[in-house]
Recover the amino acids of this structure.
């Protein structure tokens, strides 16, 4: 169903995809949802000699629920996640996040891996939720396959890796997800996600608008101690003082800090009082 | 190259693809299907949506290689056996205007209804939020789809002529993807042009080297600023008397960057991709200069000159005075004084600007997305030093206007490339070029001081306005003048002083945009009326009723001839007051609500014009002929930018000629075929051009009756023309149909001829339309978010020629007005580089973002207009943002001085930040 040509490769596995890029002399690009690396931009980029289509790799399309774990291939579409009953049951914060991304048709194009891969360059939401949910990310790179904690998503992408899958534990306990938007919902300025899992402890994550999520350890510790509700919001504000917020023409550092503080307070109160 | 096989609209197709190109490109360039539109090519707008294996996808994001073996349906395929029920209802209910978004929306709805045939309105809105539209506010589209899903049957009324809801003549073509826009056209041997645009907001060019570009295979020509005439021109120049106020300051290609996006060089190549690659190979050595991004910076004592040898004032300063403003302040019971600021905003027409130029035997034909074909011809002749007779401009129906296309910008580059290469050249903007390099609404700072007496009567108003025209003057002077005079004619203010300045800045060039200065003025005056009312303890609507002009009032100091003939603004205010529940809500809202939100209700009034007379000469001609097949053909110089103007003309002609509108064909926008007309701008289309159509049709009617008298051997004075036939009054059996008369004239009479007549209109009134608006907002004081919850607008546009189009104009005005109030704004970085370069950054409201909307067409008749009609497109946007700002002030107690009301500005206003 996908044409293989000298400039469009259709690998069957992550390993094959990786090998293709290795052989291209740096002139290959991965393509999945094509929401950022659009066909137009690929054509315009004269350095691109080969496009490696990740949507042809079955493993990257996998969406599977085991007893206590959800496995999401990196090329699963945001729309599939947004509309999946099993995802909503296992990881409702992920569902909420996906439903707030773009529009329905764009969600069909966008993939979870593509969204995560853009962290640090765009405001992307999914890394924030994945860190809050815990679990692991599996990728393929020069060292072969690796499977590491999703906390690694708090760092910029490691160059020369291919995202393969996300292994998400069944979420237990209350959760909250908030996205800071401009006056129209399509435009995000930041996000917060909280998962208060009684087994593994709370996870409190903020995306200040830079695209890189950050865990707020002191708030996590505090939440674990079941603090009085009225202490949560001031604690959120205090904790965010240590975070660097970006400033641009769409929102100043001061505004983002304030508004995300409000959202974080809301999220903590929702989770803490559940 | 590789060949893929797929099923396209039920046919198996083998198509060659040459790289990782998109399905959109393959459909348009290899398969000849141009229904899917290249609106943004970045996945933001939905204009290119098609079905792949039954599911909606954005074809711009879909690599063609993935289509091998799949089933693709485009909008053209849906109507292979005739229009679908969805397409029919969208036509009948006037769902679209310019139609450039129609293909994508039809596909999106088709997919929805296949899965959810009974989808309700919220679900339809959610689904349609995948598709951007600029004209309609989505309202008629959503409502039509909802009615279809609910199984509501249409009534059997057959619309005929004036006053009826006649669908656009082009509506079926638009919903089936068969409407041809300029960018859809291909001419034999055509080259593709691209323009090298400045990457700095302000910079000298130290050197330019195009050697590598010229050597790239497939490149046919490269030209730089060194290759174009030295002639300076002003793109807005229309009349000889413009030369004093519209400074000629730009060239076909410029030798300096005066804003990011300025035209520097251009390439013609065999493909768009090669042309784009060649542009990248042109090596320019820049010497950056300080970027003056605001009028304050440009007017500073130490500011560099953006145009060397001239100050940064781009036009003469305008002073207007009526009455005795200096003395009037002494009688004031209350005075308000503040400065109001609006940013540059963008038209965001969904169709990118496009032009094709072709020279044949020393004559150039230009197909262009322009609102003003005759004007383009005039400026072209001046810029290139050729006679006007050497150019023919054909303005196809375009995918939006909104004023963006009321002066030429890149058209002449295509003309020069075509002349140099001897081949047709097409240039189509990318969406990014639309943002960086087309026109914008002038950013404005309006200091306004108004005084009133204890009874609320306005005594004096003094306004000092400064607008940013960007890198070139274009029509900045006209906008500044309009800002000063249009709002002044809305209220009875006996003493007025106005001081207006137009300032060069290193920002995108200001141009015509819906409202043309009136929205900037209205934000100030409508805000201050509320403030005056507050100070005096008067209801905001009452203070407006106290001061509004009425019919028969003078229009400023223009004298008896230009007095206001029709004015239902006061009646409109009373109606929206009642419909909105104003009196109760002014009490119950404005207090904290249970849900933690602050709610308020606000009103505003706006006006504009139906002609640029008497400040500028404005006239139009029309030509109507009867063909031997009984069809009337109307020729006009006014292109249809999506407003439905061609249909309005047909209705006017049909009403006059006693036939249904479908008996009238309209040919528009071709300077070789049409009589002169100034084009689609200034809300003049219905009033002036429609007035010319009315006269032409009336003249033809008289000829018809004369010929019928000969045919029937009766006295012309005894004849009656109605329902497609001419009969002798009192002898209904003695009659001849128009069809029969046309046949008789051609084949049986002793003087065979084509019956034709022309008509002209030189306006004798400004014919200002009036719009009144009430909006309700909810403000989240914690995050600063503002939502418009409902909006109602009433319009005095005279007698509506087509009520469906009037409602559509109001819905579109609401969309743009709410956007202006809440989120639309062009941003720059500190160096003047535009930050809002796509629909990802420039916030355009989607279907799910729109509030409850209600429209009211006031019972009015303009005695000087065709069938009592006057303009409406621009007046309708004027009160929207001010009403929202006033509702915000009611909700929060904080008075906005700057728009849009972004969450951050709101928190500043509330003292939270």
């Amino acid at each position: 169903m996908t044409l293989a040509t000298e400039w469009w490769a259709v690998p069957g596995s992550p390993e094959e995809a990786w090998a293709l890029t290795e052989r291209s002399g740096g002139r290959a690009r991965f393509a999945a949802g094509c929401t950022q690396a659009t066909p137009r931009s690929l054509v315009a980029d004269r350095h691109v000699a080969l496009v490696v289509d990740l949507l042809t790799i079955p493993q990257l399309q996998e969406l599977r629920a085991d007893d206590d774990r959800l496995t999401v291939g990196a090329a699963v579409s945001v729309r599939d996640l947004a509309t999946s009953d099993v995802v909503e049951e296992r990881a409702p914060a992920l569902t909420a996040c996906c439903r707030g991304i773009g529009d329905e048709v764009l969600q069909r194009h966008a993939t979870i891996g593509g969204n995560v891969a853009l962290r640090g360059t765009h405001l992307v939401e999914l890394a924030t939720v994945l860190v809050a949910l815990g679990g692991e990310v599996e990728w393929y790179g020069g060292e072969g396959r690796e499977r590491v904690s999703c906390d690694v998503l708090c760092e910029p992408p490691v160059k020369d890796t291919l995202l393969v899958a996300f292994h998400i534990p069944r979420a237990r306990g209350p959760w909250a997800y908030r996205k800071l938007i401009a006056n129209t919902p399509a435009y995000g300025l930041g996000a917060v996600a909280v998962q208060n899992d009684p087994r593994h402890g709370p996870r409190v994550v903020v995306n200040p608008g830079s695209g890189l999520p950050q865990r707020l350890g002191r708030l996590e510790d505090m939440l674990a101690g079941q603090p009085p509700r009225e202490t949560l919001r001031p604690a959120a504000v205090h904790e965010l003082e240590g975070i660097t917020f970006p400033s641009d023409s769409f929102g100043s550092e001061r505004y983002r800090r304030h508004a995300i503080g409000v959202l974080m307070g809301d999220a903590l109160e929702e989770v803490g009082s559940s | 190259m590789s060949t893929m096989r797929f099923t396209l609209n039920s046919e198996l197709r083998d198509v060659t693809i040459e790289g990782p190109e998109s399905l959109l490109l393959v459909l348009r360039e290899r398969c000849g299907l141009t229904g899917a539109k290249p609106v943004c090519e970045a996945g933001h707008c939905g204009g290119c949506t098609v079905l792949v294996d039954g599911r909606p996808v954005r074809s711009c994001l879909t690599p063609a290689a993935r289509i091998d073996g799949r089933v693709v349906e485009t909008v053209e395929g849906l109507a292979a056996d005739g229009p679908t029920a969805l397409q029919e209802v969208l036509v009948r209910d006037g769902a679209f205007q310019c139609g450039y978004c129609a293909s994508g929306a039809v596909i999106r709805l088709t997919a929805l209804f296949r899965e959810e045939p009974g989808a309700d309105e919220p679900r339809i809105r959610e689904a349609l939020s995948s598709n951007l539209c600029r004209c309609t506010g989505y309202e008629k589209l959503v409502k039509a789809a909802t009615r279809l899903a609910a199984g509501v049957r249409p009534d059997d009324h057959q619309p005929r002529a004036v006053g009826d809801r006649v669908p656009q003549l082009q509506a079926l073509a638009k919903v089936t993807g068969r409407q041809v826009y300029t960018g859809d056209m291909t001419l034999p041997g055509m080259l593709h042009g691209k323009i090298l645009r400045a990457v700095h907001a302000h910079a000298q060019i130290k050197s330019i080297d195009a050697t590598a570009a010229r050597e790239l295979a497939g490149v046919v020509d490269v030209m730089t600023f060194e290759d174009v005439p030295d002639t300076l021109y002003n793109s807005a120049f229309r009349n000889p008397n413009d030369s004093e106020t519209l400074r000629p300051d730009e060239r076909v290609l410029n030798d300096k960057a005066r804003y990011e996006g300025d035209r520097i060089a251009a390439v013609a190549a065999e493909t768009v991709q090669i042309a784009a690659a060649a542009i990248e190979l042109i090596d320019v050595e820049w010497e950056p200069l300080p970027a003056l991004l605001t009028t304050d910076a440009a007017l500073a004592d130490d500011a560099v000159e953006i145009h060397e040898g001239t100050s940064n004032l781009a036009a003469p300063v305008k002073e207007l005075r009526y009455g005795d403003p200096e003395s009037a302040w002494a009688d004031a019971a209350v005075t308000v004084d503040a400065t109001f600021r609006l940013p540059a905003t963008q038209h965001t027409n969904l169709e990118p600007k496009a032009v094709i130029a072709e020279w044949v035997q020393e004559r150039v034909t230009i197909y262009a997305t322009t609102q003003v074909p005759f004007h383009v011809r005039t400026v072209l002749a001046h810029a290139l030093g050729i006679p006007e007779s050497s150019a023919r401009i054909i303005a196809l129906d375009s995918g939006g206007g909104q004023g963006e296309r009321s002066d030429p910008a890149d058209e002449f580059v295509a003309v020069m490339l075509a002349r140099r290469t001897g081949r047709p050249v097409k240039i189509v903007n990318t969406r990014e070029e639309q943002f960086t390099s087309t026109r914008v609404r002038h950013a404005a700072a309006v200091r306004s001081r108004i005084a009133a007496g204890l009874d609320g009567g306005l005594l004096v108003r003094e306004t000092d306005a400064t607008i940013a025209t960007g890198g070139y003057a274009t029509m900045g002077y006209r906008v500044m003048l309009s800002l000063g005079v249009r709002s002044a004619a809305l209220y009875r203010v006996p003493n007025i002083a106005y001081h207006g300045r137009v300032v060069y800045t290193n920002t995108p060039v200001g141009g015509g945009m819906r409202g043309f200065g009136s929205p900037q003025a209205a934000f100030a005056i409508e805000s201050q009326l509320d403030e005056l009312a507050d100070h005096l303890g008067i209801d905001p609507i009452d203070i407006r009723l106290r001061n509004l002009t009425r019919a028969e009032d003078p229009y400023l100091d223009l004298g008896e001839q230009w007095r206001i003939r029709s004015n239902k603004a006061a009646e409109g205010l009373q109606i929206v007051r009642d419909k909105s529940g104003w009196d109760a809500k002014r009490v119950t809202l404005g207090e904290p609500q249970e849900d933690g939100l602050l709610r308020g209700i606000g009103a505003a009034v706006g006006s504009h014009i139906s002609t640029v007379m008497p400040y500028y000469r404005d006239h139009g001609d029309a030509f109507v002929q009867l063909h031997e097949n009984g069809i009337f053909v109307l020729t006009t110089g006014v292109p249809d930018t999506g407003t439905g103007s061609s249909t309005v003309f047909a209705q006017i002609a049909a009403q006059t000629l006693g036939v249904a509108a479908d008996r009238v064909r309209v040919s528009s926008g071709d300077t070789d075929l049409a009589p002169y007309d100034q084009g689609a701008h200034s809300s003049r289309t219905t009033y002036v051009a429609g007035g010319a159509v009315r006269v032409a049709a009336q003249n033809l009617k008289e000829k018809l009756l004369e010929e019928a008298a000969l045919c029937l051997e009766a006295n012309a004075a005894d004849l009656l023309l109605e329902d497609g036939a001419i009969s002798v009054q009192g002898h209904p059996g003695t009659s001849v149909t128009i069809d029969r008369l046309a046949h008789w004239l051609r084949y049986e009479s002793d003087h065979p001829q084509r019956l034709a007549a022309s008509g002209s209109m030189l306006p004798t009134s400004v014919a200002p339309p009036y719009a009144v608006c009430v909006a309700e907002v909810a403000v989240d004081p914690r995050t600063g978010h503002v939502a418009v919850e409902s909006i109602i607008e009433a319009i005095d546009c005279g007698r509506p020629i087509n009520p469906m189009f009037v409602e559509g104009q109001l819905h579109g005005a609401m969309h743009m007005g709410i956007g202006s109030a809440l989120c639309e704004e062009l941003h720059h970085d500190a160096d003047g580089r535009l930050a809002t370069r796509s629909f990802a950054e420039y916030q355009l409201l989607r279907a799910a973002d729109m509030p409850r909307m209600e429209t009211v067409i006031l019972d009015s008749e303009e005695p000087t207009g065709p069938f009592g009609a006057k303009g409406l497109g621009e007046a309708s946007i004027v009160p929207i943002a001010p009403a929202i700002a006033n509702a915000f002030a009611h909700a929060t107690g904080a008075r906005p001085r700057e728009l849009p009301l972004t969450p951050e500005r709101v928190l500043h206003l509330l003292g939270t930040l």
Summary: The first helix of chain B runs from residue 23 to 30.
